[in-house]
Fold this protein.
Amino acid sequence: MAQLWGGRFTKETDASVKAFNDSLRFDSRLYHEDIEGSIAHASMLGRQGIISAEEADTIINGLGVILSEIESGDLVFTDEYEDIHSFVEANLIERIGDAGKKLHTGRSRNDQVALDMRLYTRRQIDLMHSELKDLLQVILDIMEKNTETFMPGFTHLQKAQPVTLAHHFGAYFEMFRRDLLRLEDCRERMNYCPLGSGALAGTTYPLDRDYTARELGFYGPTLNSMDSVSDRDYVIEFLSDLSLIMMHLSRFSEELIIWNSNEYRFVEMDDAFSTGSSIMPQKKNPDICELVRGKTGRVYGDLFSLMTTMKGLPLAYNKDMQEDKEPAFDAIDTAHACVKLFAGMLSTLSFRKDVMEKSAARGFTNATDAADYLVVRGVPFRDAHGIIGRVVLYCIEEGRSIEELSLEELKSFSEAFGEDIYEAVSLKTCVDKRLTVGGPAPEVMKAVIENRKEWLATV
């Protein structure tokens, strides 16, 4: 027996149709979820007296043997089976005989596959949650060590104001923290059990859907059988969450690629996470970052593939929905690989703190603080802004920084300048004085880091 239907048909399925229709080549990865759901279903059938207790035990034991044989490699997937459901059921019947034919009582492949995908998606959410926690810990460790590592902050890719490495990495911590919280939200919404919905209209058998939901770790059963078998919102939502994770990884990658360039030299990639050139012996390429950046588009494509598949489907189940699996599996595999590799790459980065500090000092990142200095001395801000603009222009022409100008030179622009200007525009002062919540001052950053450490320990 290689398929779960056929009584209505008088001819064999055309070989090309079978190949086009079959899904075992990709849905075989759902074997654990399919067997897990079948065990819960068989247990419920026995408890309800729909099949005998002995038959339920025989089915459950047989399913356990199949699971063990798949995982040991003794039982392999072959293309004679249509999908993972027919593979498991056919092998069960082969092992235990007629009792195996009773497993499908009170269910359809429609609610069966809906259950399998929910169980699989939930498991993958939990795995991604754990991987994001690891990444967040790596970022937090770097932040903790660099609350006084000065560097330029940027807008429009131009040096803007001085910040610290801890502050810059803290922005990515917040991004991935939101990603982790979104995963938790997604899991909450999708954690209801569709098993027992049948093809679309439930069943006349006295199923105990609350029991199977509890057995499988769900909050309870879904409450509309038509929606239950045709809902893939949770997969789309998960892929949306993965797309945001990939977007944040891609932004981070872009910055590290720039920082790794000869022009910036802010970071040095570890040899284990870099590659060389086949022709240029001096090259050390940030391939992990570049691949993460490239694979982001791939995950976006998987999301839009599934959204496009679902956008015109009438209720309830349609075969189009078989197309949910390949893009979902691809996006999930891609995101897992990217998060794990990125965390490893990030944990081995070397930071050139002296280069970062010199870049901040040479980039007029203290210009705003110089204008604020004049404001404190009674110069209207708009006038102060213009004065410092002229000072910067003069510095560019002279090839010097603001703090390298003599007091006499500064006074030629405004008599409001005094000896204390040099301390006022030092990188340390510029950063230390930014004490507003969310700012880069070490005092503020240390409080934020403690807050985030406490939060990370609870999720």
User: Anything to note?
Assistant: The CA atoms of residues 32 and 71 lie 9 Å apart.
